[in-house]
Amino acid sequence: MSKAVSIAREQVSTAVRSALEKAVAAGTLVQAEIPAFSVERPADRTHGDFATNAAMVSARAFRTAPQKIT
Questions:
Q1: Three-class SS string for 1-49?
Q2: pLDDT digit string (tens) for 22-58?
Q3: Structural domain tally of the chain?
Q4: Most Cβ neighbours (<10 Å): which of 20, 34, 47, 53?
C-alpha cells in the first residue's frame, strides 16, 4: 500500500469520525461512544475509492438503523 493511499484512508477515517461526532453534538444521534470502524479499498473499483463499515458497526451504539446514520 502506498503512502498516498494510507494518508487518504486516514483522512476518510477522520472525516467519518468527525461527521459522527457532529451528528451526536447536533442531537441527530444519541450520545454514545463511536465504535472502531474500518476504511478499505473496495475489491470492485466501480464502488468508489474507499468504503467504510461505520454505519453498520455504529447502529447498535446509536440505537438506530444503519441507513439513518448519514
A1: CCHHHHHHHHHHHHHHHHHHHHHHHHCCCCCCCCCCCCEECCCCHHHCC
A2: 999 999 999 999 999 999 999 999 999 999 999 999 9
A3: 1
A4: 20
